[in-house]
């Protein structure tokens, strides 16, 4: 590591620089290069299961970056950089194209469309977004309702701007989910105004609910409000069977989390799609509802 022993201050200085502005600048430059080098950015897919019968219901595409020096980086490291640097729309386009291509591959192999959700940064939403998405769907021949776009409400522009940008997609049948619900400035009133399709309950309100009545009351309220608005609910961060039981009791229809499956590669989804129906929540024991 850095310099030599006995020069601790220098070492600390370097470390601070590397983890701060210099690191961001370097990754920004590297990301611009990666966006033109196919293969460095890739997707993994986290399955979402139906709580009632444990069946695979859809998948969420999650981007990863195989950095030539730093190894595989999680989105928390580079998505904020892409948002700040204005490369986020390019990143989205690549994630969308890759995941629609994999989805087409699953369809070709199984005869079944597996709905795919792609994260869309609110910061990139503009008048060109709809054209880009519609062109990508046309390119793979994907039924538009087999795609969901997940948006967090944090950092969203004016609701009217958002609705204008998403209008052509919604009319085509693309589904919209509010991601990380409960963590941002999102209110149910605003979600109601948008008339979106899915509420993803953030894991803050999910993990540990079986031993936290305050939290389970909040989750209960979120599920009820979503249903009152005609929206479906997906619980994020389900990492133990007891929490899943509570969600089942609350009537939450879908669940995603490490208990059920970590994100996997495209072949992993193909395996899941081919296997027998999974154990239902009702049958789930303390050892979990899945592998
Ligand atoms: P998200 O959309 O809320 O995605 C769920 C995150 O929670 C994923 O982390 C997933 O691996 C993780 N997760 C799933 N199950 C569990 C669990 O049981 N416990 C815990 N502790 N975590 C769980 P990941 O892949 O690191 O993604 C983090 C965030 O990065 C995502 O949150 C999303 O906001 C963003 N992101 C990922 N891919 C993209 C992308 O292509 N574009 C944009 N704009 N953002 C993305
Ligand atoms: Mg998401
Ligand atoms: Mg989420
Ligand atoms: Mg979340």
TrEMBL record:
Residues 24-277 form the EAL domain. Signal peptide: none annotated. It comes from the Bacteria. This is Diguanylate cyclase (GGDEF)-like protein. The chain holds residues 457 to 747 of 767 of the full protein.
């Amino acid at each position: 590591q850095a310099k030599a022993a006995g020069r601790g201050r220098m070492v600390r200085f370097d470390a601070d620089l590397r983890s701060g502005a210099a690191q961001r600048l370097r990754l920004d430059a590297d990301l611009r290069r990666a966006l033109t080098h196919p293969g460095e950015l890739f997707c993994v897919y986290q399955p979402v299961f139906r709580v009632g019968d444990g069946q695979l219901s859809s998948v969420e595409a999650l981007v990863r970056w195989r950095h030539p020096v730093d190894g595989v980086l999680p989105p928390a490291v580079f998505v904020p950089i892409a948002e700040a640097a204005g490369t986020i729309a390019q990143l989205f386009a690549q994630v969308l194209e890759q995941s629609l291509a994999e989805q087409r591959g699953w369809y070709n192999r199984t005869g079944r469309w597996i709905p795919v959700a792609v994260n869309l940064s609110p910061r990139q939403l503009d008048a060109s977004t709809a054209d880009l998405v519609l062109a990508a769907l046309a390119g793979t021949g994907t039924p538009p309702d087999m795609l969901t776009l997940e948006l967090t409400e944090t950092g969203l522009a004016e609701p009217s701007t958002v609705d204008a940008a998403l209008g052509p997609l919604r009319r085509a049948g693309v589904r919209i989910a509010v991601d990380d619900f409960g963590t941002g400035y999102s209110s149910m009133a605003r979600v109601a105004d948008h008339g979106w399709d899915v509420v993803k309950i953030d894991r803050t309100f999910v993990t540990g609910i079986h031993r936290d009545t305050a939290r389970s009351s909040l989750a209960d309220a979120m599920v009820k409000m979503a249903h009152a608005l005609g929206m479906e609910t997906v619980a994020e961060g389900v990492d133990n069977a007891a929490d899943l039981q509570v969600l089942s009791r609350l009537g939450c229809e879908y669940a995603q989390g490490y208990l059920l499956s970590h994100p996997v590669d495209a072949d992993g989804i193909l395996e899941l799609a081919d296997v027998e129906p999974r154990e239902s929540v009702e049958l789930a024991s303390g050892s979990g509802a899945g592998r």
